[in-house]
Amino acid sequence: MKRSMKLIRRRALTAIPVLLIVVVMTFLLMENASGDAVDAYLLSIGGGDAKVAATLRQQYGLDQSALARLWLYLTSLARLDLGWSVAFNRPVLSLIIERLPNTLLLMGSATAFAFGLGSALGIIAGARPGSLRDRGLSLLSLILYAIPSFWLGLVFSLVFAVQLRWLPTSGLETIASGKTGLARATDIATHLLLPVGALALIYMALYLRVMRSSMAEIWQLDFVAFAQSKGLSRHRIVWRHVARNALLPLVTMLGLQSAAMLGGSVVIESIFAIPGFGRLAQEAVTGRDAPLLMGIIVVSAVMVIAINLLVDLAYAALDPRVGASEPS
Length: 328
Prior knowledge:
Blueprint: H1 2-31, H2 37-44, H3 50-59, H4 66-78, E1 84-85, E2 90-91, H5 92-127, H6 132-146, H7 149-163, H8 181-218, H9 222-229, H10 234-271, H11 277-286, H12 290-318
Helix pairs in contact: 1-12, 5-6, 5-8, 5-10, 6-8, 7-8, 7-10, 8-10, 10-11, 10-12, 11-12
């Protein structure tokens, strides 16, 4: 518990400058981009004169200097106010709260599936490096990792939804179905099978390869030879000694891939028409909605920091040396 509190305190202190850098850099990038939300709005309604554009920019505060708008955003962010969405005409925070659970459900299911199946298959492959099953699983992981997630999603949709008609093509649940309780949960799970599979299989292949490679290296270490000399069964050596130590780089990879999976959800949510966080980011870019896009990036950064904190805590639970030497 003491080591965990040290890690939490350290991450909390480093998160503030990281978030500040993310906000400032994102603001500067969007400041140098051409066009704004007013241009996108006028384009959607067929145009407008300069007076209307000037009035709208004054209403949305876009007529102020960049420094003034940055300071206003930072002070609002300190009050947990993410601003007002120009495209949706709603508070940014309410939009994110509405869409974020869908993406967390998608990402959580895909991460759990990819990590669980990938580590299990990696253990099977790494239990006997160089064996036939090791070569077969390694080849399978290489093939899956080479396939783009969007292509896999389109293939899944074409085969299982269009041709076989086993699964729904899009959405998070059946519209106006009136289902509640277990029936609704089953309906949501059915809708998530294809997007979760398309998003998870790519990362499952990566976890399999990392787990297999890590176990192959650990088999060469002295403590494994010592365990073999004690007469321990191969099954016990694999699960109690080799696999547990091989999990450390896999857990680290889990934290590094969290941001990549969050970015991958943008494509998957667009293919399967899931009203999630990633699709909201696409809509913010299309509408040139700078406040909404800023809010999405800030929340994404907070999510990545939180996920890496959980990974550090898991790492500390697996390896007692982690956090033991940090100052109190």
